[in-house]
Specification:
Elements: H1 6-19, H2 45-77, H3 89-112, H4 116-146, H5 155-183, H6 193-220
């Protein structure tokens, strides 16, 4: 299932980018190889980055599109569908997640200006808001349970738990990536802090977009 090893995937993506970002051979003839032979052309790091991140995101999109298709088909053809009202906390959680993306972009701007200290503060704020979103989703589950809606209560409640649970699992992988950027000592790493933050931010913004899509699906299908 996509997402179960998302942390490893993201770290491999980051290391892959770092592997392609080494120094170019000195311009002259001999670059250190035997016989003065030049190395073959290296694959640009941007191409490796684009390929890796697209493959990771597309695999997740395909999985959730399959789940969304099952939701739409069941909603349209089932005689036992019972509409559910989404708890208000879900909308608050959405705002929290959007604020997290905003803080992340501000932190990347500070990093581009060389302000590492302010970058760390804003990056930490983005990560903390991610944790707050997950906590809010647990509150939403608790409200559903207190109202008597469980995974097996009806089809609508089943999809609510499936969508929010799987998204939360993938988002948790994203949080691990944010923590990696926060605590990694990039002075000794093969990849720069800028590249690592860029990879993590693209995945995080994708999680935002995915949540908006799932929320719209649940709201329109109630």
């Amino acid at each position: 299932m996509p997402g179960t090893s998302i942390v490893e995937d993201i770290e491999l993506i980051i290391e892959d980018i770092g592997g392609g970002g080494g120094k170019n051979p000195p311009p002259g003839g001999d670059d250190g190889d035997e016989g003065g032979k030049r190395r073959g052309p290296q694959v640009p790091s941007s191409r490796r980055y684009a390929t890796a991140i697209v493959v990771a995101i597309v695999s997740i999109v395909m999985f959730f599109m399959a789940m969304a298709s099952a939701f739409i088909y069941t909603r349209a053809n089932s005689n036992r569908w019972v509409p559910l009202d989404l708890p208000a906390i879900v909308w608050v959680n959405t705002l929290v997640l959007l604020l997290s993306s905003g803080a992340m972009e501000l932190s990347r701007r500070r990093l581009s200006l060389g302000d590492v200290r302010q970058f760390r503060k804003l990056w930490f704020a983005a990560t903390a808001l991610g944790f707050l979103f997950l906590a809010g989703q647990l509150v939403a589950w608790r409200q559903f349970i207190l109202a008597g809606f469980y995974v097996s209560t009806n089809q609508a409640s089943s999809f609510f738990y499936i969508f929010t649970g799987l998204h939360g699992l993938h988002l948790l992988g994203g949080i691990c990536a944010l923590l990696y950027v926060s605590f990694r000592k990039f002075e000794k790493a093969k990849v720069s802090r800028t590249v690592a933050a860029e990879v993590a931010s693209y995945y995080w913004h994708f999680m935002d977009g995915l949540w908006i899509f799932l929320l719209a699906l649940l709201y329109l299908g109630k």
